[in-house]
Amino acid sequence: MTDPIDRTDLRARFWEKTPLNKMTPKEWEALCDGCGKCCMNKLEDEDTGEVALTRVACRLFDDSSCHCAQYPIRHQFIPECITLSPDNMEENLYWMPETCAYKLLWKGEPLYNWHPLISGDPNAVHTAGVSMQDRTVPEFEIDEDDWEDHVIEEPLG
Length: 157
Prior knowledge:
Layout: H1 14-17, H2 25-30, E1 40-44, E2 51-57, E3 61-62, E4 67-68, H3 74-77, H4 89-92, H5 101-106, H6 116-119, H7 124-127, E5 137-138, E6 151-152
Parallel strand pairs: 2-5
Antiparallel strand pairs: 1-2, 2-6, 3-4
């Protein structure tokens, strides 16, 4: 499978030297590991604020590629889809997956060896078993009251 994220002509190991708020838009996008976890619906406990990841995928999620089928125009279909940026990281960290490169770098932690920027292989995230590839159910097939039946442990792998 080819990488839908353009990782060509990037500064060498830019993520180790460049603060998130100083990255170019291309570098920012290249941080995405393609796991697809951010496209899963989550359940938040009203009392504790704890967030549970489900395998119930957004209706735009492509289960085989682990990418949004309409990424450039996703807000036309899903207005509440978050466009992650350094400016809104802090308020979004709580729901982001534990293996997410954005979250890891925000916390000062290194990327995993399977990350495409380290491994050079966009499929390494799938081979490592940490992606949602072939693990999801579409949200239009599952009643929202039944989402709790589809909670998964994070991190995968």
